[in-house]
């Protein structure tokens, strides 16, 4: 089963590629011109949570568990550049939208300091209103959703009037390529009071309103207010209705590189750093670190880790579950303690976990064991964040 995917989007020159590099430590092309990112770059980023080893008070120091903090991999897709009118085919147009369609949640990197115009061209700081960027990206996605519906609207209405389809099914079938489920369409129809309305009576405004609400529910968007350290007045973020987090991708990238080189002690999400013991700092390095300190005086952290965690745990409401094969030793068959983590939507069941591990295990599911309580649980038992679970199945992965 594919891993959770986060889409990273934004116009040119806002620091999107720097955000990607900082989050994944993968070098990508960056430049002072539109469409620097032509093909989607895919990397692995990590969200952070308390490791289950804390509950069991066991020694568990690995690459993915450091001092009781678990690093959980997610797929981050740095998507090709976007310009106004993309839903009409302008710029890279539908390529952008198609690349983004499989992402469960979107991070929109915005130049909150207003140093780039709507096309991504450099302008003096504060001369462009970043709220325009927030609005145009939301509009592009909403209008893309609306266009998908409008293309087939006559066909949908015919199917419903001929009783060959229900309204929910007729709409959901048009969005299957975006991973949108029937219940999500149903929720939006009910929320807007459209569930019992004849689709022939829907106006174009109704279609756009429905599309906008469906996009919000199925592709939640977090605003990464990048270059926050250069912003003359951060009160501007209060005018953004979406979830917005100030950040400095350039600072995060610098700190990660300095940490990797053994110059500083820093872990993503920290509200500061310290010089590594016994390390002599060259004047150019000291100058860069002084700049980093000035960033922390303006924003509490670089914001990158907070944005990733917010995307997964707040916007998507995912939980972390630890599958094991030995419920006593909390190991896999090779004896590795707490070897794996799975991210699941809230209200997922033990059988959902089995399916995420492997289809054969789900097919032969008998029961599960909650390793914290030592209790046997059924397939429809809802799991909780931090659960450690052994699946008992008649089938294995062979």
TrEMBL record:
Pfam families per the UniProt record, alphabetical: MMR_HSR1, TGS, YGR210-like_G4
PROSITE patterns named in the record: G_OBG (PS51710)
The organism's place on the tree of life at top rank: Archaea
UniProt keyword annotations, A-Z: GTP-binding, Nucleotide-binding
GO cellular component: cytoplasm
Span of domain OBG-type G: 4-267
Alphabetized InterPro entries for the sequence: Beta-grasp_dom_sf, G_OBG, GTP-bd, P-loop_NTPase, TGS, TGS-like, YGR210-like_G4
An example molecular function term from Gene Ontology annotations: GTP binding
NCBIfam families found in the cross-reference section: PRK09602.1
PANTHER family, sorted: OBG GTPASE FAMILY, OBG-TYPE G DOMAIN-CONTAINING PROTEIN
Stated family: Belongs to the RelA/SpoT family.
Protein name per the record: GTP-binding protein HSR1-related
Species name: Nitrosopumilus maritimus (strain SCM1)
């Amino acid at each position: 089963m594919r891993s959770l995917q986060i889409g990273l989007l934004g116009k040119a020159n806002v620091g999107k590629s720097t955000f990607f590099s900082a989050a994944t430590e993968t070098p990508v092309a960056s430049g002072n011109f539109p469409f620097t990112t032509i093909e989607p770059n895919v990397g692995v980023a990590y969200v952070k949570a308390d490791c289950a080893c804390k509950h069991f008070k066991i020694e568990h120091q690995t690459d993915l568990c450091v001092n009781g903090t678990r690093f959980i991999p997610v797929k981050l897709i740095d998507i090709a550049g976007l310009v106004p009118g993309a839903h009409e085919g302008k710029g890279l147009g539908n390529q952008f939208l198609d690349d983004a369609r499989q992402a469960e949640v979107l991070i929109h990197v915005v130049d909150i300091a207003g140093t780039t115009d709507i096309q991504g061209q450099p302008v003096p700081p504060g001369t462009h209103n970043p709220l325009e960027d927030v609005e145009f990206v939301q509009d592009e996605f909403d209008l893309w959703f609306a266009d998908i519906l409008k293309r087939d609207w006559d066909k949908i209405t015919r199917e419903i009037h001929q009783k060959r389809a229900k309204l929910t099914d007729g709409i959901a079938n048009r969005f299957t390529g975006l991973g949108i489920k029937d219940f999500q369409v149903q929720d939006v129809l009910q929320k807007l009071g459209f569930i019992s309305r004849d689709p022939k009576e829907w106006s174009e405004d109704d279609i756009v309103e429905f599309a906008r609400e469906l996009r919000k529910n199925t592709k939640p968007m977090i605003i990464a207010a990048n270059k926050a350290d250069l912003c003359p007045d951060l009160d501007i973020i209060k005018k953004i209705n979406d979830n917005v987090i100030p950040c400095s991708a350039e600072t995060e990238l610098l700190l990660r590189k300095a940490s990797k080189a053994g110059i500083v002690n820093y872990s993503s999400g920290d509200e500061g750093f310290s010089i590594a013991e016994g390390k002599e700092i060259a004047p150019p390095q000291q100058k860069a670190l002084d700049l980093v300190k000035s960033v922390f005086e303006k924003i509490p952290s670089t914001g990158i880790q907070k944005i990733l965690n917010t995307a997964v745990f707040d916007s998507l409401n995912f939980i972390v579950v630890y599958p094991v094969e030995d419920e006593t030793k909390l190991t896999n068959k090779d004896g590795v303690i707490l070897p794996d983590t799975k991210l699941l939507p809230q209200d997922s069941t033990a059988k959902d976990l089995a399916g995420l591990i492997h289809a054969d295990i789900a097919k032969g599911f008998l029961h599960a064991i909650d390793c914290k309580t030592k209790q046997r649980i059924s397939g429809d038992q809802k799991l909780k964040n931090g659960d450690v679970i052994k699946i008992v199945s008649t089938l294995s992965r062979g």
